[in-house]
Amino acid sequence: MITLLEARNIGKRFGGLQALTDVSLTIRKGEVYGLIGPNGAGKTTFFNVLTGAYTPDGGEFVFNGSELPAGKPHKIVGRGIARTFQNIRLFRDLTALENVMAGHHIRTKAGVWGILTQNRFTREEERLTTQRAYELLDYVGIGRFADVVSKNLSYGDQRRLEIARALATEPQLLALDEPAAGMNATETGQLKLLIEQIRHDGITVMLIEHDVKLVMGLCDRVAVLDFGKKIAEDVPAVVQKNEAVIAAYLGGGKHAH
Amino acid sequence: MNELVSAVPYLGKRNPMAARWLIIIIALVAPIIAWQFGKSWVRILDFALLYMMLALGLNLVVGFAGLLDLGYIAFYAVGAYTFAFLASPHFDIHMPFWLVLPLGAAFAALAGIMLGFPVLRLRGDYLAIVTLGFGEIIRIFMLNLNYPINITNGPQGINMIDPINLFGWDLSRNLQVTETFSINSLFLYYYFFLLCVAGSILFIQRLQISRVGRAWAAMRDDELAAKAIGINTRNMKLLAFSLGATFGGVAGALFGAFQGFVSPESFSLMESIAVLTMVVFGGMGNIAGAIVGAFVLALLPEILRDVAVPLQQTLFGTVILDPEVLRMLLLSLAMILMMLLRPSGMIPARARYAHRENMKQEGAQ
């Protein structure tokens, strides 16, 4: 198995709160990797550090064999990591299509002069961006809403649109922050199919999720965070039986005594 | 142009072709109609066109990129003073118009970047305050840079600026067509400014439907998400400031040449606010809004001045309210009504950031 992402001793502190302590993990190419843990365990912080929204206090990420620039979101996206947000963050006033087209920004190059003169390169690039955006909307199953302003989409469709927008950046690693939050069983089932499709198409997926059934059914391997530390990492079936994990989720166990 | 066309009431949606021609015809005959009411009205229309350019440029910064700029008039000042320095007896430099205009635009763009850098991390109220300060700094520079070396001639301003000269054709002279028929210089300026506004609309429309326009809109709607999809928000902000400033600079250069005189008092905070009001009044974030807002708010005070005094004299026998006071009063009233009845402006159209033609083509597949 080829390693896609390696996190080495990632640390992040907010004032007096140590949000992440020496977190190390390895994600292999082509797998679905779950990151779970109780609320406040540091999962989203890990995402934010990985995608450059925060700069880590210590440690580094190695992606495809070279180090990621810390705290430089657009460069990290350029290297091939895309994310979605726990609380949906779409471009509210743009249509679904325009949201996805905006996602293609980093893979396009037209400058002001090209846009002004509408030269062949710019027109061709614009055409490809549009075409790709339509394809992606169909891919996630909301093609018929292309012209709907995104704030008017239903909740489930907004989640799908966010995934389509992330895919438009042409990532190798797609980081999903609680994609099933607020979804009913049917919607979650559809989401599972979509994520499987994404993996099948060669994109590695990293997933934060609270829905245990989804995580167990979908992930190849799972890491568990508790109070900013990694307490377990293995295939779901083994993690499920891990004592420290059970203690972290239910309280009690060794910590309480 | 498309947005402007669909903003035409009734016709816009039903018959875009007719609406398009209607706009073109109105734009072309407007000064001829205005001429019937007196020469000064054509002059007012000329100024309205300059305001349109300003509103278009500010709309790019505030409406598209979501960066509230309360000092926009500073770029207008930079353009106007650049023109005044390089084409007037003040330094005795008389560079040709086609050289000075791009220079004015370039200096304004530079000023835009100078403003942009320190405010990159600011948003909302904080950004507004700093840009307001920037506008005042530029004005005060113009006011005080006459000592120890006289650069700007201080509060007296710079006089006798060269008129616009298009390859030997002087726009400030009436065009003698036949011995008895001549076209007034104000018309020549009008049509030249109209051309500039049309060019600006084309330019901005193209920017809007492009990767840059979408990146601005993304940044405006959610900066964090924009970063997360790989938009370099620093560069995009600087681009918005400098391009917006370019329009201000061009409008300023045209203003200096048209008026033949610049002084710091033309670039007060009130002017910045007036341009912002035009953008908000018309409908932020769309081209048609900026055009309509600028047109209405540039004309309204002049119409008021013309109507208010005689009206009061016939009604009350004397002038109770000075037109200047009345203007502020009515403007405020209009803004309040606006906020209550049409909070997103007179033309609240949502701007498009993708081609409609593309949509049909690809959608059918």
From TrEMBL, chain A:
GO terms under cellular component: plasma membrane
GO molecular function terms listed in the Swiss-Prot or TrEMBL record: ATP binding; ATP hydrolysis activity; L-isoleucine transmembrane transporter activity; L-phenylalanine transmembrane transporter activity; L-valine transmembrane transporter activity
Domain ABC transporter: 5-252
Domain of life: Bacteria
Keyword Heme in annotation: no
SUPFAM superfamilies xrefs: P-loop containing nucleoside triphosphate hydrolases
CDD domains: ABC_Mj1267_LivG_branched (cd03219)
GO BP term, example: L-isoleucine import across plasma membrane
Keywords: ATP-binding, Cell membrane, Membrane, Nucleotide-binding, Transport
Name used for this protein in its record: ABC transporter ATP-binding protein
Automatic annotation (TrEMBL), chain B:
Listed GO CC annotations: plasma membrane
Membrane spanning stretches: 21-38, 44-65, 72-91, 97-119, 126-145, 187-204, 238-261, 273-304
GO molecular function terms attached to this record: ATP binding; branched-chain amino acid transmembrane transporter activity
Protein topology in the membrane: Multi-pass membrane protein
Cellular compartments annotated: Cell membrane
Domain of life where this protein originates: Bacteria
Keyword Ligase: no
Official protein name in the record: ABC transporter ATP-binding protein
